[in-house]
Amino acid sequence: MNRPEWLLDSGGDHERYWFRTPMGLEAEAAAEIGAVLPVERSVQTHRNVFVRLKAGADLDHRELVRKIRLVDDVYAFWGGCRGMDRSKDSVQSIIPFLEAVLDRNLAGDHSGGYIRPTVSFVGKRNFNRFYVEEIIGRQITRHSGLQVLNNENKDGKVDGELRLRCHIEDDTAFFGLGLWDTPLHRRPWRNIRYDGQLHTTVAAAMARALAPPPGSHILDPFCGSGTILIESALRHPECTHEGWDISEEALSIALKSSEQAGVNIELHSENSLRQLPEKTGYYLLSNPPWDEKHQISEGNIAGFVAGLEQWLRHSSVSVLLLPTELRELLEEKLERKSERIATTRIRGKLAEIIRFRY
């Protein structure tokens, strides 16, 4: 595959960033990145957006990067090198490039510090990630005083650790250093875990796709622990937010998380399929219970679709996360086609972010 030269060099006068995204959200993430940063060029690959900023932009880009919510993580991009194939021997091709970027970016005394190399790749290879991480770790030890944290040995997280990323795609290995010691998708407000919680980045993509006007009322009839409503409230603070769920535990977590995030959400412990909201013209944003934890059986799917249909018919715009088969049933029931925003993967299953307009 042809790569732009700026992706393959190890330096230059332009700031470069590498964003990791959930599968299928690359285009949506690139659009948000372009709206926040002064991007001169960008390239999208599988789960990656690489950007080069305009020269001479005098801004604090790291603080701007924190405003981007559709990415899982972000790295200062060091560049890439060719020479990879499926063989173990090809891994040796990264060493000259790696030595150069380590000398350029990790020069100086780092004694007492820690670094964690993490490798990912696309396609089948005759080696695993730990083999490449070991080779990278040996080079880091040679070129700096940093202590290498080993993923295969399950070394625990160290506060302030550096995070070096290598991603291998086709014949190219890309390298970058994490801007912070914690990935962006680990939101500071999500301190309580709950089975089935939606990935925060996917929730942020749904909130962006809703695009409500100021003053809108945004509802989630299946809000669970509140991830979608919180991401929406952070993106649309001028709107009001309201959610329903039958789980008291989930609602308790939603309340605590919303307080931690500094947003106000009205919550109801009710079965939303049995009670429609009093007003119409609202904006609906939801991940209905279709996954393994809340599997909809063949016996109750008709009732579920009928109940959800009523919520959609009373809305102005609805953005949902659904598997293809449920999306098709809804379209048939509504006699209306949805707009597909993106297709991503949720706990191993494909799901579509779709939008209905009324």
Automatic annotation (TrEMBL):
Transmembrane segments: none
UniProt main location, coarse: cytoplasm
PROSITE patterns xrefs: UPF0020
Descriptive protein name: Ribosomal RNA large subunit methyltransferase K/L-like methyltransferase domain-containing protein
UniProt xrefs under InterPro entries: RlmKL-like_Mtase (IPR000241), RlmKL-like_Mtase_CS (IPR053943), SAM-dependent_MTases_sf (IPR029063)
Keyword field: Cytoplasm, Methyltransferase, Transferase, tRNA processing
Subcellular compartments: Cytoplasm
Top-level taxonomy: Bacteria, Pseudomonadati, Bacteroidota, Saprospiria, Saprospirales
GO molecular function: tRNA (guanine) methyltransferase activity
Gene Ontology biological process terms, A to Z: tRNA methylation
Entry GO CC: cytoplasm
Gene3D superfamilies listed in its UniProt record: 3.30.2130.30, Vaccinia Virus protein VP39
Domain Ribosomal RNA large subunit methyltransferase K/L-like methyltransferase: 187-297
